[in-house]
């Protein structure tokens, strides 16, 4: 019988994402659940091209943990738990961390470097731009 491996990395990343995202939401909105404006996330780890030019590399990690919408965060954490528990049975802690971190960073960088915006997800950028008022 195969020995059961506890998925420590999955649990740590999931709990950290849950806790940090709720903390950021509470700091900004005064409530644990609610919507946060994209621009407000910059102080807590949102990325702009300027931050990367200044080698603020901690933002690559933090930006994957903050969410503008807490419902999105809950879905992300539940998905990470569901997939991570399965994947981490086959790889070690460090390998799983890189499986989470590298694709997350690759997915995050184009958003921030091309759009020069601080956001957690593409739909938020699209919504923000579609609803922006521009003078005629």
How would you characterize this protein structure?
This protein has 136 residues and is mostly helical. The chain has one domain. It is 60% helix and 0% strand. Helix 1 packs antiparallel against helix 4 and helix 1 packs parallel to helix 5.
Beta-strand content? under 5%
How many individual domains?
A: 1
The main β sheet shows up as: none
Which structural class do you get from the secondary structure elements? mainly alpha
Bulk shape: globular
Helix content: 55-70%
Low-pLDDT runs: 116-130, 132-136
Helix-strand string: HHHHHH
Number of H- or I-type helical stretches: 6
Distance between the termini: 70 Å
Radius of gyration: 16 Å
Would you tell me the overall average pLDDT? 77
Transmembrane segments: 6-26, 71-87, 93-114
Protein name: Membrane associated rhomboid family serine protease
Main location: membrane
Keywords: Hydrolase, Membrane, Protease, Transmembrane, Transmembrane helix
Which SSEs are present, and which pair or pack?
Blueprint: H1 8-29, H2 49-53, H3 58-62, H4 70-87, H5 93-115, H6 122-130
Helix pairs in contact: 1-4, 1-5
Give a brief outline of the structure:
By secondary structure, the protein is mostly helical. Helices cover 60% and strands 0% of the residues. It has six helices and no strands.
Key words describing this protein structure:
136 residues, mainly alpha, globular
